[in-house]
Specification:
Blueprint: H1 2-7, H2 11-14, H3 20-36, H4 44-67, H5 81-84, H6 89-98, H7 106-126, H8 138-150, H9 159-192, H10 197-240, H11 259-265, H12 277-286, H13 299-317, H14 321-336
Length: 348
């Protein structure tokens, strides 16, 4: 029983280490599955595939470095056809790294992906696989930003340079479309294993040119994202710093020409009220000194006015000559004068 246990191995232990070509093919296949999936990129099973693909491609990169497959002193024609595909390792690593979803480490991830893409472009530039301009390194970009900030406000955009960049993007897009069309034509023959060495070599060279265009676009996008993430990081750090102790509020003061004026005129503003509004109205009501507009009258005043009006009506009903004459005169006056006549104060 003990002997049986000692000879039993887990599946991972019993499997032989993968060959270099198998590591690249599996990592490449995983990237294709992730890139064409309809599932959300943040889904757990998708992130597991991404992590597995990165691990396999990293292992393949270490093996390539140990084998010294590439040299700065050799030309593209000297590279074996079977070795051309390993030039794509940094580009595939950068593409998979960009698909990782971790907001806490996003800045670190895009920085790593940029290094992968830039390393791939440098290798392609050394072998003169395609004509393109290498993007600025992070150090050069940082130096440019510092110089711009030191020289004052940013300069107006260079329209000629912007037009040149736009034309380069359009040309790169058209080349990528042509490359993908040619790849689709020969991919079936390469996958079937019936293609000769020349077709296989063209297949890998077309893939390298395609990834050159992809890497240039990704680096432009990464530079914009890094600028945003860096500013967000600075804002978070500044908000996390302890706020300075607040000073006690200063007492209000008023400037005066001299101390004598300050003693004469005091603080320069009216003194505080000594009674409330209700108290003021009650005091004036007792003195019968309330103004008529906007102030409600007491019940006693209303009753007295009603009694006076009733007495006037009784005198008119009793044929009081004086009351009748006053009523007639008042009616005649209203007939010949409009309402508000002679009211010069209110202009009614």
């Amino acid at each position: 029983m003990a002997a049986a246990e000692s000879t039993s191995l887990s599946p991972s232990q019993s499997e032989e280490p993968l060959k270099l070509s198998d590591l690249l093919d599996r990592g490449w296949k995983l990237y294709g599955e992730v890139d064409t999936t309809n599932d959300h990129i943040a889904a757990t099973h998708i992130q597991v595939k991404i992590k597995r693909g990165i691990t396999q491609l990293e292992e393949a990169t270490r093996m390539v470095a140990q084998l010294d497959l590439f040299s700065r002193n050799e030309e593209l024609e000297e590279v074996a056809t079977t070795d051309l595909k390993y030039l794509m390792l940094p580009a595939l690593l950068g593409a998979l790294t960009m698909k990782q979803v971790n907001l806490a480490k996003r800045l670190e991830q895009v920085q790593i992906a940029r290094c992968y893409f830039l390393d791939f472009l440098k290798r392609c530039k050394e072998y003169n696989i395609s004509k393109f301009e290498l993007p600025n390194t992070n150090e050069n970009s940082a130096g440019t930003l510092e110089e711009e900030s030191a020289n004052g406000p940013p300069k107006p955009p260079d329209l000629i340079a912007m037009a040149t960049v736009r034309a380069a993007k359009i040309e790169r897009y058209n080349q990528r479309k042509d490359t993908e069309a040619k790849l689709s034509e020969i991919k079936a023959a390469v996958d079937s294993g019936q293609a000769d060495d020349e077709i296989v070599r063209d297949f890998y060279l077309l893939n390298l040119r395609k990834w050159i265009a992809v890497s240039l676009e990704e680096i432009e996008s990464i530079d914009q994202e890094m600028e945003i993430l860096t500013r967000m990081d600075v804002l978070q750090q500044s908000s996390a710093e302890p706020s300075q102790s607040k000073r006690p509020p200063m007492k209000p003061f008023i400037l005066t020409k001299d101390a004598v004026q300050a003693r004469v005129f005091g603080a320069g503003y009216p003194s505080l009220p000594t009674m409330s509004v209700d108290e003021w109205y009650e005091q004036h009501r007792k003195k019968n000194a309330l103004p008529d507009q906007g102030i409600p009258r007491s019940a006693e005043d209303v009753d007295a006015e009603e009694r006076e009006q009733e007495e006037k009506e009784k005198r008119v009903e009793n044929d009081d000559e004086e009351a009748l004459q006053k009523a007639r005169d008042w009616d005649n006056w209203k007939d010949t004068h409009r309402r508000g006549y002679g009211n010069r104060k209110n202009m009614g």
